[in-house]
Amino acid sequence: MGLPFSEGLRALEEGKDTKTIGNYANVSKYLAAEIAWEAGNVAMDVYGGYGYAVETGIERKLRETRLYKVAPISQNLVLSYISHHILGLPKSY
C-alpha cells in the first residue's frame, strides 16, 4: 500500500465511491499539514533566532504552514472525521 495521496488518486481514477475518496482526502490533508509544520519547525531550529529575520523567508513559511493546520478545515475536525468515518468510533462532538 502506498501513501494516502497516491492511493486517493488511484481511487478517484478508478471511480470509487465518494466516501472512500473523502477518507483518503482527509487523511492526506492531515498528514500534509503535519509534515509541513514539522518542516517549518526544523528550519526554525536550524536557523535559530535568525529564522525570524524576514530576509530568510523562514518566518513567512512557518506562518503559512500554521495556516494549513486551521484552514480550510481544522485538524480537530479532520481527526473527528477520521475517528467517526474510518475508525468507526462514536461522534465526539
From TrEMBL:
InterPro entries: Acyl-CoA_DH_CS, AcylCo_DH-like_C, AcylCo_DH/oxidase_C. The lineage of its organism: Archaea, Thermoproteota, Thermoprotei, Sulfolobales, Sulfolobaceae. It comes from the Archaea. GO terms for molecular function: acyl-CoA dehydrogenase activity. Keywords: Flavoprotein. Pfam families: Acyl-CoA_dh_1 (PF00441). This is Acyl-CoA dehydrogenase, CaiA. Residues 11-70 form the Acyl-CoA dehydrogenase/oxidase C-terminal domain.
